[in-house]
Amino acid sequence: xxxxxxxxxxxxxxxxxxxxxxxxxxxxxxxxxxxxxxxxxxxxxxxxxxxxxxxxxxxxxxxxxxxxxxxxxxxxxxxxxxxxxxxxxxxxxxxxxxxxxxxxxxxxxxxxxxxxxxxxxxxxxxxxxxxxxxxxxxxxxxxxxxxxxxxxxxxxxxxxxxxxxxxxxxxxxxxxxxxxxxxxxxxxxxxxxxxxxxxxxxxxxxxxxxxxxxxxxxxxxxxxxxxxxxxxxxxxxxxxxxxxxxxxxxxxxxxxxxxxxxxxxxxxxxxxxxxxxx
Length: 278
Ligand SMILES: NC(=O)c1ccc[n+]([C@@H]2O[C@H](COP(=O)([O-])OP(=O)(O)OC[C@H]3O[C@@H](n4cnc5c(N)ncnc54)[C@H](OP(=O)(O)O)[C@@H]3O)[C@@H](O)[C@H]2O)c1
Prior knowledge:
By secondary structure, the chain is of the alpha/beta class. Helices cover 38% and strands 17% of the residues.
């Protein structure tokens, strides 16, 4: 599996398994295990997904050494500031049954509970993450759902390595993507299949037929060809495998442009980071 360098010693695989909505722990464990057996080496979870325990258990049972699997988790919207962040992180490690994570993200920049003073709280939170990084408990630091202005508002000593944001043919925040790419922040694309809702789009179907690939594979390759790490979620074993089979082709520049032309504000499926109702 190809990787992208995040910092001096850390390399992130170019695709990861998404695990949101895998809240039945047995199902989550089965999917993560099947993904690892199919060749995935990158798992995306979060405190808020309620499945860290299953992710950790599957990784243990896979028999693949811990240092060969890239694990991301995220600070939930319930916690901010130094003490809460340190405590929540330790609780996550316990659930994951690990002594470090590869990537730790602030899940949302401005949760409703903290919207009044989110800038100050994000700075305190990120400083606590930097402490954990210095202790070797986090190998790379990042954020999620941060738009350009949230990134500009954040004070950091250790650079942000990753920003995880919504990305698929129907939606992209090109301004934030451009800002991140200029500042060497790697983008992870969530909902890369548009949650399955965009797979019967005529252009995506046309390209699937042209490249002899499935619509999902066209969407995933579109992320890779935009230098974005896709995080497809599936609880269907065949699809978990299908979603990894995207490294034997690439889209022509003209086809990437055609797919880009599908993206618009209306295509956003997830919540807006500044106005989310949570
Ligand atoms: N940071 C954030 O705020 C945030 C927000 C949203 C998501 N995420 C992350 O990104 C991951 C992916 O996003 P997502 O779960 O919203 O959506 P997604 O991966 O775009 O789509 C998942 C949906 O597509 C279906 N699917 C998967 N593979 C398919 C295939 N090959 N053919 C047809 N349908 C397929 C799945 O069905 P089955 O499962 O039934 O197969 C599921 O209904 C999440 O799991 C999570 O890890 C992060």
